[in-house]
Amino acid sequence: MRIYVANDYNDLSRKAANIISAQIIMKPNCVLGLATGASPVGTYKQLIDWYNKGDLNFEEVKSVNLDEYKGLGPDDEQSYAYFMHSNFFNHINIKPENTYLPNGLEADEAKECERYNGIITSVGGIDLQLLGIGCNGHIGFNEPGTSFGKETHCVTLSDNTIDANARFFKSKDEVPKQAYSMGIKSIMQAKQILLIASGENKADALYNSILGPITPAVPASILQLHNNVTIVADKEALSKILVEHTITSGGNLQ
Ligand code: F6R
Q1: Whole-number mean pLDDT of the chain?
Q2: Which residues have a Cβ under 8 Å from the Cβ of 157 and sit 6 or more positions away?
């Protein structure tokens, strides 16, 4: 695991975008696992900027998103499909048919989970998975207590996550109670993982994920077992870890 300390959110976004760019340059037909939420917005902006400057080409890139609210379709402004189009896909030359998200409008859970697992397999697995982290240590919508062995599944969101995501909705009541999420097993099969975290409210989750026991109670703690994980986080998100450790410029925890 390598950990890079960012000075601020802009620096974090630039560092993360650099890592994703390297992946695209080295493998133009790579499969990117993508995330939504506040954390990756700056990373997507930076990638769009480099695309506009002619430094990046998404023509052969495929993407598979982590999750989608159950009940929301792509035209709903709160859906993750809408988020991905407005924050990223509409501004680059990725082919729409190469971008995949769970279908929030599919009511048949078993059918949708099987379809999405099939997509992940058919694209040949994920080369680089971008992750944010929830304050409770969730990755994707894999809430504390979720078995590490799950592939795509339908999740009942925890109160903690509903509270955290209410900021994107008019009221807490509007936050969907369920979502489709890629499972931890699928995330762990990605060849490379890039986790980004910003702000002091992520400090406990990051500390427990990196230095605590590997347990479903802290879903991101499983990343300790992956052999190619890069974390880019600002000083606030790393504050608890930095009390006990130093992090070298090369990304090693000491
Ligand atoms: C989003 C996702 C979530 C978020 C996490 C952090 O696709 O899977 O796990 O990454 O909730 O969200 P933000 O970045 O908004 O703090």
Answers
A1: 96
A2: 141, 143, 165, 175, 176, 177, 178, 179
The one catalytic residue in 65, 68, 112, 136 is 136
Atom of ligand 1 nearest to the CA of 36: 7
Determine the distance separating the centroid of ligand 1 and the alpha carbon of 132, expressed in angstroms.
5
Told to judge if 108 belongs to the known catalytic residues of this protein, a careful annotator would answer no
Domains of the chain, residue spans:
2-244
Query: What is the atom index within ligand 1 of the atom nearest the CA of 67?
Result: 7
Looking at domain 2-244, which of 3.40.30.10, 3.40.50.1360, 3.40.1190.20, 3.40.50.12780 is its CATH number?
A: 3.40.50.1360
pLDDT tens digits, 30-69: 999 999 999 999 999 999 999 999 999 999 999 999 999 9
